[in-house]
Amino acid sequence: MPYDKALGTFFYKVSYKNPSPALPILLANFIKLFSSIADFGQSGYY
């Protein structure tokens, strides 16, 4: 999927600029959490 590839490239660039690997991992987890909440909202569960 091109979106996932672009997201991976973005996190790779962020982790390349920032030597700490925790930042992109936290961002990825936050985006997953946010997208799951958004999916619940669209489905009527939230």
Structural summary, described in words:
By secondary structure, this protein is mainly α. The protein has one domain (about 1-40). Helix content is about 85%, strand content about 0%. It is built from 2 helices and no strands. Helix 1 runs antiparallel to helix 2.
Features:
83% helix, mainly alpha, 46 residues, elongated, single chain
Blueprint of the fold:
Elements: H1 2-17, H2 22-43
Helix pairs in contact: 1-2
Helix content: over 70%
**Strand content of the residues, in percent?**
under 5%
Give the tally of β-strands.
0
Radius of gyration: 13 Å
Uncertain stretches of 5 or more adjacent residues = none
Number of helices: 2
Structural class, from helix and strand content?
Answer: mainly alpha
Largest sheet: none
- Order of helical and strand elements: HH
Overall domain count: 1
What characteristic shape results from the CA principal axes?
A: elongated
In whole angstroms, how far apart are the ends? 27 Å
Question: Roughly what is the average pLDDT, rounded to an integer?
Answer: 70
Question: Short description, anyone?
Answer:
This protein has 46 residues and is mainly α. Helix content is 83%, strand content 0%. It starts with a helix and ends with a helix.
